[in-house]
Specification:
By secondary structure, the protein is an alpha+beta fold. Helices cover 45% and strands 23% of the residues. The protein has an 8-stranded antiparallel β-barrel. A hairpin with a 2-residue loop joins strand 8 and strand 9. The longest helix has 24 residues.
Length: 435
């Protein structure tokens, strides 16, 4: 078994053309382009997909390799997945060559193999460089081709950075250096994810509401903090893809995700000093007005250096735990404490702030002045309410969201009714400031 640690980028043709010269700045070994074919398999009931597994046979020259990837973790485009590779003589499945303990409990391997059928394929040319960067060896792969399922296909133009030896910090640093030239964006969809979508008919992807964070039970404050940032990044990545594919309303979802990330920095700001996130906050602040501007073209912004470096700054901050050198023993003790208890306290503070702002009748200008505060506290509710059932948190949060939306869209006739409705809901949390 190996564990892949890699970053995936979608690249413009200008970025592809510039890549060899950029990589020449560091010691490297180049491999000539090679044509690769990958055939992905699945059952009629999507057994592998339902267990977050992916199975393929890769052909190159006269050699074949069978690969299965099992459930892993993705943080802002940084992929970490256990991978098992087996050389095979012919492009035929032989599942019994994989370790038996990778399969779900009770899985009949022979029966599964009989049910598997080719689902989609990728055909592309891969060019590789192994770059020495810092103390690490990093493989840079350039893939150009297409993914196809029956009559449907989609172009591929990707650059992947995979850590072969060394540390993740060097991988992120090399990515940041390449990002300076523009023309790259972090990919939220793997080749396999695109292929599965094509195999299902390439239906339009739908926007998703920003769901309440649901961290594991008994999470520490630090674990809840990390989960909150990851929620924002996942929402950002998904809706960025929709925005680029022509869904203009997805821009608002990207803005919502960034607002959540900024509020997470505020919510946990009492434990994580501002200097620990100074660069990240500066980059997020610079990005926001570009998203607010309705004339901004996603094909320009999402491939810009500033946009990618902002994402990479957050990825690096999370993956390397960049706040930890700034944390003293007292703060670490608080970060190790109960996220549920911390959330109850912070929910009380958020509710108190909204009650102070909206307890009286406001004129139209005052409502609009309070919109940033309202947006921040709705984000706080999303970050902090996950310990409680949806039927308790949903009506409370949704009532404040409705007021937020009414003010954002300047539906003045709705202001008073939605304000009163929001204030009418009793707090759902324990030990809050309002209990």
């Amino acid at each position: 078994m190996t564990v892949e640690i890699e970053l995936k980028f979608i690249a413009t043709q200008d970025a592809v053309a510039a890549l060899p010269l950029q990589l020449a700045a560091w010691p490297h070994q180049h491999s000539a382009p090679q044509k690769l074919t990958n055939i992905y398999f699945e059952t009629a009931d999507n057994f592998l997909r339902s267990h977050d597994m992916g199975l393929r046979i890769r052909g190159f020259d006269d050699s074949y390799e069978m690969t299965i990837k099992t459930a892993g973790k993705v943080v802002a485009g940084l992929h970490q997945r256990p991978e098992y590779n087996v050389a095979i003589a012919r492009p035929e499945l032989a599942l019994d060559l994989f370790p038996t303990d990778i399969w779900p409990q009770g899985c009949d391997i022979q029966a599964l193999q009989q049910q598997l059928q080719p689902l989609f394929r990728t055909d592309f040319v891969r060019e590789k460089w192994v770059v020495t960067y810092g103390k690490s060896e990093i493989e840079v792969g350039l893939d150009q081709g297409e993914v196809s399922a029956d009559e449907l296909n989609e172009a591929l133009c990707e650059i992947e950075l995979e850590l072969k030896e060394g540390n993740t910090a060097d991988l992120l640093a090399l990515a940041n250096a390449l990002a300076e030239h523009g023309g790259l964006r972090q990919s939220s969809l793997s080749k396999a994810a695109r292929g599965y979508h094509l195999a299902q008919g390439n239906l339009p992807r739908e926007r998703h509401p920003l769901a309440v964070l649901k961290p594991p039970a008994k999470s520490s404050v630090e674990q809840g903090m990390v989960a909150g940032f990851e929620l924002g990044l996942s929402h950002w990545q998904y809706h960025e893809e929709l925005w680029l594919r022509g869904d203009g309303l997805a821009r608002r979802s990207v803005m919502e995700a960034i607002a959540l990330i900024r509020q997470a920095l505020v919510v946990f700001g009492g434990l994580v000093p501002r200097k620990a996130s100074a660069d990240l906050r500066t980059r997020l602040t610079a990005l926001e007005p570009l998203l607010v501007d309705k004339t901004t073209k996603p094909q320009v912004l999402c491939y810009s250096a500033e946009y990618l470096q902002c994402k990479l700054a957050l990825t690096s901050w999370l993956v390397t735990g960049a706040w930890r050198p700034f944390i003293d023993a007292k703060a670490q003790t608080k970060l190790d404490g109960s996220f549920k208890r911390f959330s109850d306290i912070m929910l009380g503070r958020s509710a108190a702030e909204l009650k102070e702002a909206f307890t009286r009748t406001l004129n139209d200008d005052e409502y609009e002045e309070q919109l940033p505060r309202l947006t921040r506290q709705v984000s706080a509710f999303i970050l902090l309410s996950g310990a409680y059932p949806d039927d308790e948190t949903g009506p409370y949060i949704e009532s404040w969201r409705e007021l937020q939306l009414a003010v954002a869209e300047r539906r003045q006739g709705w202001y008073e009714a939605t304000r009163k409705q929001a204030l009418s809901h009793a707090p759902f949390w324990l030990n809050g400031a309002l209990r």
